[in-house]
Design brief:
Oligomer: single chain
Distance between the termini: 67 Å
Shape: flat
Structural class: mainly alpha
């Protein structure tokens, strides 16, 4: 009963951190989408210099743990005398990491499409940029939704380590209350339930989006069949 009372009293404060968590994850996903798509196009259709740059970027941000990146960016901002905002640094680090992963999601989707579509666009008098923008990307983005949903769940879990910078998200607020009340098990279980519910709700929404934009009879299997035709 004591644990239940602590949870009830702490729940509004912890749920306030949910807004911070969702804001950070949403900003990171948006940054990853805005940069990941051009990076994927550069890696598939760019010149060797572009491909090398993207490969180096992906190698760096996929090879270093996000906790280490948080401290690196924090120290970098301090060394330059720039304003240090834990929330903005958290968004930037997760956004840079998500860009690396999303670029590979989109690259895989682009490469799963029939290569003849680019040739067909050229035969119709379209520039390569027009073909990519009007034909390739709409299909690739549709095929990327399952991978993008997986990226959301990964980012949501990664956001839990942002409390080390003082970002007032779910884990930071839970840890603060647990340190005062010593009800660690009950409070961290509550935080786990909140993360689970957030993941479930957003993945359900993305599944609906995937069903809505699905073209009957067309998908990665359809693409493979088209290649063999």
């Amino acid at each position: 009963m004591d644990s239940l009372s602590v949870i009830i009293n702490a729940l509004p404060f912890i749920l306030g951190g949910t807004l911070v968590t969702v804001g950070a994850v949403g900003a990171a996903l948006a940054m990853g989408l805005c940069l990941g798509v051009p990076f994927a196009v550069m890696q598939v259709y760019g010149n060797p210099l572009m491909r090398s740059f993207v490969s180096l970027y992906v190698w760096f941000f996929r090879g270093i743990p996000i906790l280490v990146l948080l401290f690196l960016f924090y120290g970098f901002f301090l060394s330059l005398g720039l304003p240090v905002n834990p929330f903005l640094i958290s968004c930037l680090v997760m956004g840079c990491t998500s860009t690396a992963y999303q670029s590979q999601i989109f690259r895989g989707a682009i490469q799963s499409l029939p290569s003849g579509q680019m040739k067909a666009g050229r035969a119709l008098g379209m520039r390569d940029s027009q073909t990519i923008r009007c034909i390739i990307l709409p299909q690739a983005l549709r095929l990327s939704i399952p991978g993008w949903a997986n990226e959301f769940s990964i980012l949501l879990k990664d956001s839990a380590v942002c409390y080390v910078l003082g970002t007032q998200e779910i884990m930071a607020r839970t840890a603060a209350i647990a340190a005062r009340t010593h009800e660690h098990l009950a409070l961290y279980a509550t935080a786990g339930v909140i993360y689970f519910v957030l993941t479930l709700v957003v993945l359900k929404l993305l599944r609906r989006l995937e069903d809505k934009v699905r073209v009957p009879g067309y998908g990665t299997q359809g693409s493979a069949a088209f290649k063999g035709a």
